[in-house]
Specification:
single chain; 228 residues; mainly beta; five-stranded antiparallel beta sheet
């Protein structure tokens, strides 16, 4: 009888430590959640990750190293899908619907803004909201907008995108400018007339006195930097 009890105990221990017969849904969700936590680590504001349910009827073979991934072009923002796959010993792939919520600050118009109007700090307000529910390119810092001009008329309370404004030109069309080329130990300059308007850092075409057209980077003070 003692031998039977010992054998029974060993069998019970083997069963308790045996490899599971399938990949558990909870384990799949954990892999997806950990992946999203890493992907969203640098996002501004308070990030909340929610991983959807996995069909309990799935019968996936156990995997020693499941790998989470996202489809090309997808990102951990708003409604998204995370894939979890196994390479060996039995290849399989499953997709899990997930949600990434980001509660953070964004910039809105505190007063109506007229098209072409230069934007000042006092005309902007910082708001709190769900950033993933707002349009892409939403401004999260007043510095992205102050000093620029509105490219359209905007009503008060409207969340502001960075593409709603344009930088003030530092070079105007027809303006006389100085072309500057710098190299290792030398600098060359010439004068010309701007063929168009451009903001700081934008490319602008300049027509020189001999009719040649040269492109360079617009800078403050009527300068245009030309790459050597």
């Amino acid at each position: 009888m003692k031998h039977i009890l010992v054998i029974a105990s060993l069998l019970a221990a083997n069963v308790a430590g045996a490899t599971p017969a399938r990949m558990e849904p909870a384990a799949l969700r954990q892999v997806a959640e950990q992946f999203l936590q890493v992907q969203t680590a640098g996002l501004p504001g308070k990030v909340t990750v929610s991983v959807g349910a996995v069909d309990a009827r799935l019968n996936l073979a156990p995997c020693p190293a499941p790998e989470a991934f996202m489809m090309p072009g997808a990102r951990a923002w708003g409604k998204t899908t995370v894939g979890v796959r196994c390479a060996a010993p039995s290849p399989w792939t499953v997709y899990i619907q997930s949600q990434v919520s980001v509660l953070g600050s964004y910039v809105a118009a505190a007063v109506p803004l007229v098209q072409g109007q230069a934007i000042e700090d006092g005309q902007l307000a910082m708001m709190q909201g769900e950033l993933t529910a707002l349009p892409p390119g939403i401004a999260t810092d007043k510095a992205q907008l102050v000093g620029k001009s509105s490219s359209l008329s905007i009503s008060a309370g409207t969340p502001l995108r960075v593409d709603m404004v344009k930088a003030k030109p530092v070079i105007l069309q027809g303006q006389l400018v100085k072309l500057v080329t710098k190299g290792n130990g030398f600098a060359v300059s010439a004068e010309g007339k701007a063929a168009g308007s451009a903001a700081e850092g934008q490319v602008v075409a300049v027509r020189t006195g001999n009719g040649q057209q040269i492109s360079g980077i617009a800078r403050l003070g009527g300068l245009v930097e030309v790459a050597f």
